[in-house]
């Protein structure tokens, strides 16, 4: 379980998070909803140890507040960043291999066939494109690759930063089915999503972030019927 207490994060003099409390219970999917600049990415970066922050971040009762990205990955928290950031000049297979570095050390030998097979079973398109360069993939396939690379890191918690960004609605629908499948495998998910309706539909719990603070939180189903959210985030049903 991930437990965050009183998290503050800073970019120089800018305070991007102002006392955030958040929990991701084991096996659950939680989402963070909020407008541009609310601090969603900063929250994931704080957990991954990529921005200056204070407060308390506990992972299965272990204090990882001051852990760097390598240690956080090794503990089983894998961050799939906004914008996918796959390696364009590497093949699909090589991109997936990179994902094993967090637990396998240097890419040295082929002891990750099982993980590769799991990713290819989940995303058959990646199997078909195995030897293609990442730059030649469609946006949806690149996002699958980014998530697949994350899965290669053997996550217990997968953090996804706006996987739907820039994708057509049908592709987003397909992708979110896969995210639900991943969660059903027992992997906890912390998902950032601007499309509040979609996020509430797939997740168990939701946190609404506004200007660095949690404005509402609760079970997603209950929040999707909450009039305060409907007027501010969901439009009229
Ligand atoms: P988006 O949906 O646009 O990605 P977000 O909710 O993820 O938004 P963050 O990217 O976390 O928001 O940004 C939170 C605040 O921190 C914003 O005011 C942003 O301008 C600021 N910020 C983010 N990155 C930096 C940076 N590298 N340097 C200075 N300020 C930053």
UniProtKB/TrEMBL annotation:
Q: Which Pfam families match?
A: ABC_tran
For the keyword Transport, the answer is yes
Q: Which GO terms fall under biological process for this protein?
A: L-amino acid transport
| CDD domains in alphabetical order | ABC_TM1139_LivF_branched (cd03224)
Q: ABC transporter domain spans which residues?
A: 2-236
Query: Which UniProt keywords are present, listed alphabetically?
Result: Amino-acid transport, ATP-binding, Nucleotide-binding, Transport
GO function term, MF aspect, one: ATP hydrolysis activity
Family note: Belongs to the ABC transporter superfamily.
| The protein's name in its UniProt record | ABC transporter ATP-binding protein
The record lists the organism as: Feifania hominis
Q: What is the lineage of its organism?
A: Bacteria, Bacillati, Bacillota, Clostridia, Eubacteriales
